[in-house]
Amino acid sequence: MKLLDLRGCICPMNWVKTKLALEDLEPGEMIEVWLDDGEPIRNVPRSAAGEGHRVVRVAPQDSFFRVLIKRGGDS
User: Known catalytic residues?
Assistant: First the structure.
């Protein structure tokens, strides 16, 4: 599984980078994205779901969130 550490990355670049990483995956594959609190954790999961991907888990850590996203598509 691919890990994308986007802590410190501002909106909308965190979604752009997540979207590009998802496009590199096959349908059904997963990626773990690390996001800051605030706009990033509100916007990235919502955008991913809006484009047909499945947000499997959002897990708060000490200073960030771990988000597991399963790529949508033909799976």
Answer: 11
Continuous segment of H or E residues that includes residue 7: none
* Residues 29, 16: Cα–Cα separation, whole Å: 18
The domain 2-70: what is its CATH number? 3.30.110.40
10-residue block means of pLDDT along the chain (75 residues)? 95 96 97 97 97 98 97 78
Task: Report the C-alpha gap between 60 and 29 in whole angstroms.
Answer: 22
**How is residue 21 written in tokens?**
């990483």
3-state DSSP helix/strand/coil % of the chain, to nearest 5: 30, 30, 40
Tokens of 37: 């609190």
Q: What are the counts of helices (DSSP H) followed by strands (DSSP E) for the chain?
A: 2, 4
pTM of the model: 0.94
Q: Where are the domains of the chain?
A: 2-70
